[in-house]
Write a structure and sequence with these properties.
Elements (H helix, E strand, L loop, with lengths): L2 H20 L7 H16 L1 E6 L6 H14 L5 E5 L2 H19 L5 E3 L9 H9 L1 H7 L7 H13 L6 H5 L6 H7 L3 H4 L11 H11 L2 E5 H6 L1 H8 L4 E4 L5 H9 L1 E4 H11 L5 H7 L7 H28 L9 E3 L6 H4 L3 H24 L10 H27 L7 E7 L5 E7 L3 H7 L6 E6 L9 H6 L7 E5 L6 H4 E6 L9 H16 L3 E4 L3 H17 L3 E4 L6 H10 L3 E5 L16 E4 L10 H12 L4 H18 L10 E5 L3 H4 L3 H5 L7 E3 L2 H11 L2
Parallel strand pairs: 1-10, 1-11, 2-4, 2-5, 3-4, 5-10, 12-17, 12-18, 13-15, 13-16, 14-15, 16-17
Antiparallel strand pairs: 6-9, 7-8, 8-9
Bound molecules: iron/sulfur cluster (SF4).
The site of iron/sulfur cluster has 11 residues, from α5, α10 and α11.
């Protein structure tokens, strides 16, 4: 151990000792100490560390404390990236203050968000000066003069410019108006605004560059080259918490989706009715700019064919999405022209024409050295807005061209449906590791990847490989749970029908009614499809109601947080949840005592990205089930199981309703992920009796 290591380790020991002495309720946790020591070693010597740290370890403090001590010794600032806002809030309100108290270092910690999360006063002033536009944008939203007045006051008064303050104040704006007053990368690019002139987004970035620790989210880190080339490149260490989300976020960031609704929205933000062209028209001096007015009218007309041809393309794409099919991989060997002989070409032409028309309108308005425009900031903003939308149309045209290259290798091209059910084109890279390596890992000298669930099976290798890393270059650790799980959890398997059996939904429903109806314990049922969820909900609704049990059933697209809150507050509730409930929701103590895993969570093989990745594995001579389906299912299974025990005093029962865990050759891999060997039982009555005996 070097002297430097001794120093950091010694400071760490002192900091933990301070916490144990002075922080009420703080306890020595072996896993936390181990993780902090591992991270300290990497902070001293450089390199990569991946740690799977189950619930209860206290991983946030384990990474914050050594990083803060390193910063206090003069390293570059610490960059922390999370996937969820929930974790960011927890870090800011609880873990960071605790780590700072323990270290005795008064360091500056800030969160940084994307430009769109901040108010742009320039844009807001222009919009609010045109109140009717603001009201028009809120047609379906019931925004009244009073709300606009309160918004105007906030625009002048806010010191942070963070748009989320608005909902906290009870001001709910329609999304179109919100995006019209937010920072916009397309309009900001050409503007010379300085932080000192009141740009909140730039001020936040300036603050971040002065801070000792900056907290961001993965989406921002991966999408913003500016953050990577400044904050990341100059950082002393990078901490990626909730690292199991990185691959998916990177795929989304590097992908493209384009549909008719998006084009309609962009047309509405550009046109002369309520968009940029309207602002531009208003910025012209009356009676002196006939030519510019004509160019604006022409640009407005040029937007209409875009929407028309986008609608035709969507109709052509319907052929790839038979009724009831949510998404489909673009068929191999089929050219775009075979699916859409005319509409795609016409749409591309219309996009190019609309972009040129917008450019002509902006140029015409700006001609004669700006003498056609009313003097002042409003005209500047109108021009920025028009040029911003122009840049966006050019980007859309390029995106559509990239979506038409369906023969490109290493990319999943597929069609799915947008929020209004219209077919939409998508492309996603199958592998993101090289890009992550080049744009993130290569810029950081000390990097920690951590999560409560990072490994799918026994090794972290597959998870690291997906991120472009290997176990040879990365120090790894999988810490054991600090809880005596085998004493806290009873694991059962129902030896009933398999999920593909038509009798499965009825068996699952009977089981729910039998367990909850008798014991009235909060029960979470994790499902893998809305179809099954709806069928089960319709079967259990009446019998549960008759027993006074509250049924909470997630609807497609419904966020997990509000339902989770309602469930936590209940005492005899059943929550039927899909994807978003398998992870990231916290139900401590009696808020969850019985967990039912309806089926082993294998990915849907027809999911376009999964299907394309499987094809790629087959082409390389591999086995998609072993290399893709099993690792994904095991990771998700471990996450689902993790919902049950959140504290050292929790106690619960997990029932695997999918009997393949006891019958299939791969079953033992799932069994190994359970806290204890499960008991196979044959009936709901047996399970109900076991629940009664296990729970106090
Ligand atoms: S740079 Fe200018 S246009 Fe962009 S958000 Fe800041 S104030 Fe608004």
């Amino acid at each position: 151990m070097t002297i430097a290591q001794q120093t950091l380790q010694t400071s760490l020991e002192q900091a933990f000792a301070r916490l144990e002495r002075f922080e009420p309720g703080f306890e020595h946790r072996e896993g936390q100490r181990e993780m902090a020591a591992l991270w300290s070693d990497v902070l001293e010597g450089g390199g990569l560390l991946a740690v799977e740290a189950p619930t209860g370890i206290g991983k946030s403090l384990a990474y914050l404390l050594p990083a803060i001590l390193l910063r206090a010794r003069g390293s570059g600032p610490i960059l922390v990236s999370t996937h969820t806002k929930t974790l960011q809030d927890q870090l800011l309100s609880r873990d960071v203050p605790l780590a700072l108290r323990a270290s005795g270092m008064p360091l500056r910690v800030v969160t940084l968000k994307g430009r769109q999360a901040y108010l742009c006063r320039r844009r807001a002033h222009a919009r609010l000066a045109q109140r009717r536009i603001a009201l028009a944008a809120s047609d379906d939203f019931g925004l009244d003069e009073d709300a606009l007045e309160r918004l105007s006051e906030w625009v002048e008064r806010t010191t942070t410019g963070e748009l989320e303050e608005l909902s906290a104040m009870g001001i709910h704006l329609p999304p179109s108006l919100l995006s019209d007053i937010a920072g916009d990368p397309f309009t900001c690019a050409g503007s010379g605004c300085e932080p000192s002139t009141g740009c909140f987004a730039k001020a936040a970035r300036r603050e971040a560059r002065r801070a000792d620790m900056i907290i961001v989210n993965h989406a921002l880190l991966l999408s913003d080259p500016g953050i990577r080339t400044t904050l990341l490149a100059e950082s002393g260490a990078l901490i990626l918490d909730e690292a199991h989300h990185l691959e998916r976020v990177a795929r989304e960031q590097q992908g493209v989706s384009l549909g008719v609704q998006e084009l309609k929205r962009l047309a509405a933000r550009s046109d002369a009715k309520g968009g940029a062209l309207r602002l531009l028209k208003r910025a012209l001096r009356r009676g002196r700019a006939a030519e510019a007015e004509a160019a604006i009218a022409a640009a407005d007309q040029a937007l209409k064919p875009v929407v028309t041809h986008a609608g035709s393309l969507a109709r052509d794409l319907e052929r790839l999405l038979p009724p009831g099919v949510p998404a489909a991989l673009w068929p191999r060997g089929v050219d775009v022209a075979a699916v859409s002989p005319e509409a795609l070409d016409r749409l591309l032409e219309a996009l190019a024409f609309a972009a040129r028309a917008l450019e002509r309108a902006a140029d015409a308005a700006e001609s004669e050295d700006g003498r056609l425009l009313v003097p002042g900031a409003f005209a500047e903003e109108a021009l920025d807005e028009t040029r911003g939308r122009l840049a966006q149309w050019i980007e859309v045209e390029q995106a559509l061209r990239s979506l038409a290259r369906v023969e490109e290798r290493g990319i999943a091209f597929y069609v799915d449906r947008d929020e209004r059910g219209s077919p939409r084109l998508n492309r996603r890279p199958l592998r993101v590791g090289d890009a992550l390596r080049a744009t993130v890992f290569s810029l950081s000298e000390r990097t920690l990847l951590t999560s409560a669930t990072l490994a799918s099976g026994e090794s972290l290798g597959p998870s690291l490989a997906a991120l472009g890393l290997s176990v040879e270059e990365t120090a790894t650790a999988r810490l054991p749970s600090p809880f005596p799980l085998e004493r806290q959890v009873l694991s059962l398997v129902l030896d009933g029908p398999e999920p593909a059996d038509p009798a499965f939904a009825a068996a699952l429903s009977d089981l729910i009614v039998e367990i909850v109806g008798v014991h009235r314990r909060n029960t979470l049922v994790l499902l893998t499809s809305y179809q099954m969820l709806e069928e089960v909900a319709s079967r259990v609704r009446a019998p549960l109601e008759a027993r006074g049990v509250v049924l909470l059933a997630q609807s497609p697209g419904e966020a997990a947080a509000p339902l989770a809150r309602e469930f936590r507050d209940g005492t005899a509730s059943v929550l039927l949840g899909t994807a978003s409930f398998w992870e990231g929701v916290d139900f401590p103590g009696e808020s969850l005592e019985v967990l039912l895993i309806a089926r082993l969570p294998f990915p849907v093989p027809t999911d376009p990205v999964i299907a394309a990745r499987s094809e790629q594995i087959v082409e390389a001579g591999g086995d998609p089930f072993r290399e893709l389906m099993m690792p994904e299912a095991l990771l998700r299974f471990r996450q689902g199981i993790g919902r049950l025990i959140r504290t050292a005093t929790d106690r619960g029962v997990v029932v695997i309703v999918d009997p393949r865990i006891a019958r299939a050759g791969y079953g033992p891999k799932f069994v190994a992920a359970l806290p204890a060997r499960p008991r196979v039982v044959r009936s709901g009555a047996e399970i109900a009796a076991a629940v009664q005996a296990w729970l106090p």
